[in-house]
Write a structure and sequence with these properties.
Layout lengths: L8 H10 L1 E5 L4 E3 L8 E6 L2 E7 L2 E8 L4 E2 L2 H5 L6 E4 L3 E6 L1 H10 L1 H31 L18
Antiparallel strand pairs: 1-8, 2-7, 3-6, 3-8, 4-5, 4-7
Helix pairs in contact: 3-4
Length: 157
């Protein structure tokens, strides 16, 4: 599982011991867009679709299967859910909550940093895929390029 790449056996056992087992039946949601964030899920069995709603329609962003994680942004930015995750098959997962990561930080900050880096890599991988898709759509002429981002008043950046 990429999210656990290069972490020690101690750190893995530490997090797994604190993870909450979650079972979700096919068709049910792990969480919905806008829900309060509780933690990250690591899918052990089953498959899910990650989607967003727009004008009453569901748009699938991606799919995930065993070994994949989702909801990691909740552990990084502490905001509400940015998408919905629905099981397409019966699923078994582990939920890793912020408290477990905080405990890991207190015991072994190097292992905590590795987990954070792995989550960051996963988010970056997804951002690159989204950038590639946006570029392809813009290059086809189907959508105009977005306006430049506004600068932050305090920093000018």
């Amino acid at each position: 599982m990429p999210i656990f790449g290069a972490i020690s056996e101690f750190a893995l056992e530490f997090l797994v011991a604190r993870a909450l087992p979650v079972s979700v039946c096919s068709g049910a949601h792990f969480f919905c867009e806008g829900d309060e964030s509780t933690g990250m899920f690591v899918l052990e069995e089953g498959h899910v679709v990650i989607s967003r709603l727009w004008q009453g329609r569901e748009f699938v962003l991606s799919q995930a299967g065993p070994g994949d994680c989702f909801g990691e942004m909740a552990l990084m930015d502490l905001n509400r859910r940015s998408a919905s995750v629905r099981a397409t098959h019966d699923c078994q997962a582990m939920e890793i909550r912020p408290g477990a990561l905080h405990e890991l930080f207190e015991r072994d900050c190097e292992q905590f940093a590795l987990i954070q880096m792995n989550m960051g890599r996963e988010v970056c991988r997804r951002l690159r895929a989204t950038d590639d898709l946006l570029f392809a759509v813009q290059a086809s002429g189907a959508v105009a390029a977005p306006a430049p981002a506004a600068t932050h008043p305090a920093t000018g950046m």
